[in-house]
Amino acid sequence: MAMISIVAMDKKDCNGNTKLESNFAVMEPYDKYFALRRRRLAKIMTEFQEYLTERATHLLGYPLNLNFNHLMDLSPLLLFHINNVGDPFKESAYGLHSKEFEVEVLDWFAQLWEMEKDESWGYVTNGGTEGNLQGLLLGHLCKNNCTLQERAAADGILYTSRESHYSIFKAARMYRMECKMIGTLMTGEIDCDDLRAQLVLNKDKPAIINVNIGTTFKGAIDNLDLVIKTLEVCGFSDDRFYIHCDAALYGLITPFLGQAPKLTFKKPIGSVSVSAHKLLGSSMPSGIHMTRKKYVGVLSRNIEYLATVDATITGSRNGHAPIFIWYGLNIKGYKGIQEDVNKCLIRARYLRDGLRNAGISTMLNEFSIIVIFERPLDHEFIRHWQLSCVGNMAHIVVMPHVTIEMLDDFLDGLVRKRSVWYRHGSVQPPCLADEMGISNCSCLDHGKGLLDGN
User: Family, per the entry (predicted)?
Assistant: First the structure.
């Protein structure tokens, strides 16, 4: 049989960066060519690592912290299949698990969010989406007093802002929940006037509220206290609403900011979801789902052949992730995370000021590390810096791995390319007054709005 090449081929983009183009087909390892195959596989992996290294030096648009070299200490654990099947607080017949580490991680987050240890329950998830699915499922079942089998007949309504993460709307479809999309303010924060109007129209049905502790694109923090007050004004008692907090990125930021709105279980919230791979950093997606122990009964089931109880979305769960989180928390500690948060905030303001000084429309919410600005016209430039874009806007998430040198390099490249895009005046920078406010817009009509210092 003829050999099919599986050697990776490198090409360069217009910026001189590696673009990986490979034949990754899975092929049978014939004995005759085994040694050659191993050498070629090793070559592909080496080239793929080089590609990832180059891409990591230009990651600006997505909320990932790439500073986690300390996790290399844990590489020997890859020799084991570690599976935390079922409830982390329950033993099982399967012995290769890391539930002891998982429980300590959960205790740390329970303290962070001011929840009594004997009242808390949670588990390490695959990331923010799973945490949102788990939290909204609990709210759906608990506020409708139904079992998992009866959920289709439940009539509680989900309220969430239009700038919520797509997983919230995915949950509504999966659980067949009626969903009311609430408007937002210019910042991206939920409009509680619109929320109040929707609640009044549906006072006879339980309310499941998704509160964004940092929206995906603008980094806006919904006013949790105002949401709670709105529910009370509309006549919803504690037993008729459930609040899930999607704190994917900001759940590890706001607790370290003295003036930021407080995320705490001392308020009548039902659950929180946070992504551990974002601010903390990890080589694999992971997160934390935290809720009140009293809610878990609607999902808990005895699994006889595993000799354990399960109340999680996935059942089998990554047992390496809790160890990675536990190790990261021990390496950084509260002080180290605080330093990372402060560094990100300072550099986000540095980027915002640099964009403003260059006459580029930009916005940065209070307590935010997400800088929104005018979308570049060059697709390759967007790809080069891995920018996240919506309409005429792009954003950069200033994570701990994002250095001043990276931001200067980005700014220099953007200013240089803009001088080409808009050279002859036939194309003008877009007006972003409707998206980020007149004072943040630097288009020809509103450019002077920047003089007010906002």
Answer: Belongs to the group II decarboxylase family.
